[in-house]
Specification:
Oligomer: single chain
CATH class: Alpha Beta
Structural class: alpha+beta
Bound molecules: guanosine-5'-monophosphate, zinc ion
Radius of gyration: 13 Å
Number of domains: 1
Strand order of the largest sheet: 1-2-3-5-4
Helix content: 10-25%
CATH architecture: 2-Layer Sandwich
Order of helices and strands: HEEEHEE
CATH superfamily: HIT-like
Largest sheet: 5 strands, antiparallel
Shape: globular
Strand content: 15-25%
């Protein structure tokens, strides 16, 4: 396993507040939330970033979005934002693909 924070959270080696888990995905609360609800939706498969995905990952990427919709519903979010930061210049700080699921306050556009 790569020495990776989110791989370790997915493997339950580092604690996190999980809100969803299945065979392919974990979702857990962001440790430094930027909205009243801020959940990270994370594949158990290690991918450095979205642009590291390949055609064979398409079902997984679709599933991640479906999980985000499901978790949003579970958390009673009607409106939400789903964000991927791809690369340092886009704000990515953890090199394991994750979708930010954020809601519970009005969102501005464009994001900073
Ligand atoms: P990025 O900046 O890569 O798009 O997002 C990484 C996110 O991971 C940040 O929102 C950050 O707060 C969150 N994060 C970093 N370390 C931890 C941790 O140990 N546990 C949890 N639950 N979230 C973390
Ligand atoms: Zn990883």
């Amino acid at each position: 396993m790569p020495d990776c924070l989110f791989c370790k959270i997915a493997a339950r080696e580092i604690p996190a507040t999980l809100v969803f888990e299945d065979e392919q995905v974990v979702a857990f609360k962001d440790i430094n939330p930027k909205a009243p609800t801020h959940v990270l939706v994370v594949p158990k498969k290690h991918l450095d970033r979205l642009s590291s995905s390949e055609d064979e990952d398409s079902p997984l990427l679709g599933h991640l979005q479906r999980v985000a919709v499901y978790v949003a519903g579970q958390l009673s979010l009607k409106d939400f934002r789903l964000v991927v930061n791809n690369g340092r210049g886009a704000g990515q700080t953890v090199d394991h693909l994750h979708y930010h699921l954020m809601g519970g306050r009005p969102m501005q556009w464009p994001p900073g």
